[in-house]
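re: ur question from yesterday

yeah so i grabbed the chain u mentioned. its 122 aa long if i counted rite. heres the sequnce exactly as i have it in my notes:
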Amino acid sequence: MCLPEGGVVKTTPCGRLSAHPHPSHPGFLFAALSFVASALLAPNKRPTAAKIAPYECGIVPGIDPPTRFPVRFYLIAMIFIIFDIEIVFLYPWAVIFRQLRSFGLVEVVVFAVVVFISSSSS
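ran it thru and got these C-alpha coordinates back, copy pasting raw so excuse formatting
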Protein backbone atom coordinates (compact mmCIF):
# COMPACT_ATOMS: atom_id res chain seq x y z
CA MET A 1 0.00 0.00 0.00
CA CYS A 2 1.39 3.43 -0.93
CA LEU A 3 0.82 5.83 1.97
CA PRO A 4 2.82 9.04 2.40
CA GLU A 5 4.62 9.83 5.61
CA GLY A 6 2.99 12.39 7.93
CA GLY A 7 -0.03 12.97 5.67
CA VAL A 8 1.76 15.59 3.56
CA VAL A 9 0.44 16.12 0.04
CA LYS A 10 3.23 14.84 -2.20
CA THR A 11 3.94 12.19 -4.74
CA THR A 12 4.04 8.73 -3.19
CA PRO A 13 6.60 6.07 -4.09
CA CYS A 14 3.90 4.59 -6.33
CA GLY A 15 3.81 7.81 -8.39
CA ARG A 16 0.36 9.01 -7.22
CA LEU A 17 -0.62 12.12 -5.30
CA SER A 18 -1.53 11.52 -1.70
CA ALA A 19 -5.19 11.82 -0.79
CA HIS A 20 -4.39 12.81 2.80
CA PRO A 21 -3.63 16.54 2.90
CA HIS A 22 -1.63 17.97 5.77
CA PRO A 23 -3.59 20.20 8.24
CA SER A 24 -1.46 23.19 7.22
CA HIS A 25 -2.88 23.01 3.71
CA PRO A 26 -4.21 26.47 2.63
CA GLY A 27 -7.76 25.11 2.33
CA PHE A 28 -7.84 23.93 5.92
CA LEU A 29 -6.35 27.21 7.09
CA PHE A 30 -8.95 29.20 5.18
CA ALA A 31 -11.82 27.04 6.54
CA ALA A 32 -10.57 27.35 10.11
CA LEU A 33 -10.19 31.15 9.83
CA SER A 34 -13.66 31.39 8.27
CA PHE A 35 -15.25 29.51 11.19
CA VAL A 36 -13.42 31.65 13.75
CA ALA A 37 -14.38 34.90 11.98
CA SER A 38 -17.99 33.75 11.70
CA ALA A 39 -18.17 32.96 15.42
CA LEU A 40 -16.68 36.32 16.37
CA LEU A 41 -18.64 38.51 13.96
CA ALA A 42 -22.03 36.77 13.96
CA PRO A 43 -24.95 38.48 15.70
CA ASN A 44 -26.44 37.18 18.94
CA LYS A 45 -28.13 33.87 18.15
CA ARG A 46 -30.53 33.85 21.09
CA PRO A 47 -33.95 34.94 19.75
CA THR A 48 -35.89 37.55 21.68
CA ALA A 49 -39.64 37.56 22.28
CA ALA A 50 -40.05 40.19 19.56
CA LYS A 51 -38.29 37.99 17.01
CA ILE A 52 -40.38 34.94 17.85
CA ALA A 53 -43.73 36.77 17.70
CA PRO A 54 -45.70 36.61 14.41
CA TYR A 55 -45.68 39.85 12.45
CA GLU A 56 -48.62 41.07 10.40
CA CYS A 57 -48.32 44.78 9.74
CA GLY A 58 -47.77 45.51 13.42
CA ILE A 59 -51.05 43.94 14.54
CA VAL A 60 -50.89 40.93 16.83
CA PRO A 61 -53.24 38.30 15.37
CA GLY A 62 -56.23 37.62 17.58
CA ILE A 63 -57.47 34.47 15.85
CA ASP A 64 -55.94 31.12 14.98
CA PRO A 65 -54.60 30.65 11.46
CA PRO A 66 -57.04 29.19 8.94
CA THR A 67 -57.30 25.45 8.40
CA ARG A 68 -55.42 23.68 5.64
CA PHE A 69 -56.69 23.83 2.08
CA PRO A 70 -58.36 20.62 0.93
CA VAL A 71 -56.54 18.45 -1.61
CA ARG A 72 -59.26 19.16 -4.17
CA PHE A 73 -58.13 22.80 -4.28
CA TYR A 74 -54.63 21.75 -5.33
CA LEU A 75 -55.95 19.27 -7.90
CA ILE A 76 -58.05 21.96 -9.55
CA ALA A 77 -55.05 24.31 -9.55
CA MET A 78 -52.89 21.65 -11.22
CA ILE A 79 -55.57 20.97 -13.86
CA PHE A 80 -55.73 24.72 -14.56
CA ILE A 81 -51.95 24.81 -15.07
CA ILE A 82 -52.08 21.75 -17.36
CA PHE A 83 -54.69 23.37 -19.59
CA ASP A 84 -52.74 26.64 -19.58
CA ILE A 85 -49.69 24.77 -20.84
CA GLU A 86 -51.86 23.05 -23.45
CA ILE A 87 -52.92 26.45 -24.78
CA VAL A 88 -49.28 27.51 -25.02
CA PHE A 89 -48.59 24.45 -27.18
CA LEU A 90 -51.65 25.14 -29.35
CA TYR A 91 -50.50 28.62 -30.47
CA PRO A 92 -47.67 27.40 -32.74
CA TRP A 93 -49.98 24.69 -34.08
CA ALA A 94 -52.61 27.29 -34.94
CA VAL A 95 -50.06 29.40 -36.83
CA ILE A 96 -49.17 26.55 -39.22
CA PHE A 97 -52.54 24.76 -39.22
CA ARG A 98 -53.10 25.25 -42.97
CA GLN A 99 -49.71 23.70 -43.78
CA LEU A 100 -50.32 20.65 -41.57
CA ARG A 101 -53.79 19.88 -42.99
CA SER A 102 -55.45 16.72 -41.65
CA PHE A 103 -52.21 15.41 -40.08
CA GLY A 104 -52.10 18.48 -37.84
CA LEU A 105 -55.75 18.04 -36.89
CA VAL A 106 -55.21 14.39 -35.94
CA GLU A 107 -52.10 15.24 -33.93
CA VAL A 108 -53.82 17.98 -31.92
CA VAL A 109 -56.84 15.77 -31.25
CA VAL A 110 -54.54 13.03 -29.93
CA PHE A 111 -52.73 15.61 -27.79
CA ALA A 112 -56.00 16.98 -26.41
CA VAL A 113 -57.32 13.48 -25.65
CA VAL A 114 -54.13 12.57 -23.79
CA VAL A 115 -54.27 15.78 -21.74
CA PHE A 116 -57.99 15.31 -21.02
CA ILE A 117 -57.52 11.67 -19.93
CA SER A 118 -54.58 12.55 -17.71
CA SER A 119 -56.46 15.42 -16.07
CA SER A 120 -59.72 13.49 -15.64
CA SER A 121 -57.97 10.62 -13.86
CA SER A 122 -56.93 12.93 -11.01
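noticed a couple things. The mean pLDDT is 77. also Residues 71-120 form one domain.
anyway ttyl
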